[in-house]
Amino acid sequence: MERLSIQEIAQAIGAAYPREGYVDSVVTDSREAKEGSLYVAIVGENLDGNRFVDDAFSRGADFAVASEKEAYAKPEQVLYVQNGKRAHIQIGGLYRGKFDLAVVGVTGSVGKTTTKEFISAVLASQYKTLKNEGNQNNEIGVPRTLFCLSREHEAAVIEMGMSGLGEIHDLTMAVRPDVGVITSIGVSHIELLGSRENILRAKLELLDGMKPGSPLFLCGDNDLLCNVRDGRFQIYYYGITNPKCDLRAVNIRSLEGKTTFEILSPWGEYPAAIPAIGQHNVLDALAAFGVGCVMNIPPEQCAGALSNYLPAGMRQHVVLYKGITVVEDCYNASPDSMRAAALALASCPCKGKRIMVVSDMLELGEMAQEAHRECGAFIAANGIDMLLAAGPLSLETIEGANRAGMERCLYFETKEALADAVRSAASPEDVVWFKASRGMKLEEVLNTFYGGERR
Predict the structure, then answer these.
(1) DSSP reduced 3-state for 210
(2) Are 112 and 161 in contact (CB under 8 A)?
(3) Which of 109, 118, 171, 313 is exposed most, by the fewest CB atoms within 10 A?
């Protein structure tokens, strides 16, 4: 991180501070504080960062931002604000403004991380590119990513997540995207936002930080996004099933963990291949192709660079274990992504059985039970040979599959029992797909299944 003056920081966050000084790092964990750092106290659900201001000073922090006035050891080095989290974002925006580079902002209910990774693969074929790492897409992670900008960077792709209205607005005002992408409007976070229409409103906050005339990519296969109209922006719709889309993928074929397709676009027609299966991944790749084209990368280079995509975390990571193809897709789950996984598994070449191993989808509010039953019925209707599940809500998934006539669908009370069942059921040449919300920690079933013998 390049040096910032404490006075410009104070101005950015609306804090009065008459002294002079400089910082060369910004931290939100007091344990990371050191000489030359600014500690920003953030109040979270479990911890109040104001309680750790003195710990940050003891570790060498030169300054702190706090939202509560306490008897701190160095009160003359504290800047006071109403909201530490927002101040952290504003400092990130101040730092982002120091750099002249092209920035892509990505959000959506489903697919935003995969889309970010595809875009990064395309941009990296021509530009030195920064991206969020891991799950750094929230009010803490986005500023932290911005602080990683250097003079070497020519482009950045920043994923933005949210749990409520106003959050993406704050993030996009700091990120100031030159290109925007919204991947989907589903039901993730509907427990807090109440309706898909409110989720759409929250995702469209991405536009608040964009300049008029900027390119905006919207998934035209989504029933809400396909109807978005905004004359301020140059909108491109991308999709597979909607023939009115500007960018389309046709002739989609999957084979041995790879998907090939043809891209029809305003920039021409190009063959493409990605190291992933499922039409949802093709959608994400389409968005990345379009972003690369509007960022002056030759279209044929954009299409070729899609093959450089690497899945992040436990997002459809394919592992060959003792002749069994295992798809580790347990980073997150929603009804849309659960159905997408079922379709991908159904289309996956397989000489043995197609087995789906699931646990609960979280943050669905009052619609949780119905959503799980509907996903169970969808899995049953799409040629999956066996469905194995654990988790209180996943009992509804099994019920939905049972009612739809699926013969081999079983529920287990514990993860241990589920893992034992998977080990007993899976054989060489089978494909086993693991899918659940991150909070269910389905990777524990994976670890037991592998038994320390992963290949």
Answers:
(1) coil
(2) yes
(3) 313
Using alpha carbons only, how large is the chain's radius of gyration in Å?
23
Do 246 and 265 touch, CB atoms closer than 8 A? yes
Distance (Å) of CA 389 to CA 141, 244, 373? 32, 39, 12
Residue 452, pLDDT score:
59
C-alpha atoms less than 13 angstroms from C-alpha of 268 in its C-beta half-sphere: 10
Are the CB atoms for 104 and 179 separated by under 8 Å? Answer: yes
The per-residue DSSP string of 248-262 comes to EEEEEEEETTEEEEE
According to the model, what pLDDT value does residue 91 have? 98
- For residue 326, count CB atoms less than 10 angstroms from its CB and return exposed for 0-12, middle for 13-18, buried for 19 or more: buried
Report the alpha-carbon distance of residue 293 to residue 131 in Å, rounded: 18
Query: Residue 200 is encoded by which pair of tokens?
Result: 């759409």
- 3-state percent helix, strand, coil for the chain, nearest multiple of 5: 40, 25, 40
What's residue 188's pLDDT? 72
Q: Rounded to an integer, what distance in angstroms lies between the CA atom of residue 120 and that of residue 151?
A: 18
Query: SS3 of 370, please?
Result: helix
pLDDT of residue 155: 98
Q: Please identify every stretch of the chain with a pLDDT value under 50, giving residue numbers as ranges.
A: 455
pLDDT of residue 455: 43
Enumerate residues 6+ apart whose C-beta is below 8 A from 407. Answer: none
Q: Copy the structure tokens of residue 11.
A: 């101005």
Tell me the three state secondary structure of residue 432. Answer: strand
Pairing label, strands 324-329, 317-321:
antiparallel
Q: What's the token pair of residue 51?
A: 């309680």
pLDDT digit string, tens, across residues 144-157: 999 999 999 999 99
Strand partners, 263: 249, 270
Say what the pLDDT of residue 314 is. Answer: 62
- pLDDT value at residue 125: 97
Distance CA 327, CA 285 (A): 19
Cβ contact 299:267 at 8 Å: yes
CA nearest to 181, candidates 168, 165, 190, 193: 168
As given in the structure block, the two tokens for residue 449 are: 């299944």
Q: Find out whether 126 and 297 touch, Cβ atoms under 8 Å.
A: yes
In whole angstroms, what is the distance from residue 267 CA to residue 285 CA?
A: 15
Q: Are 270 and 306 in contact (CB under 8 A)?
A: no
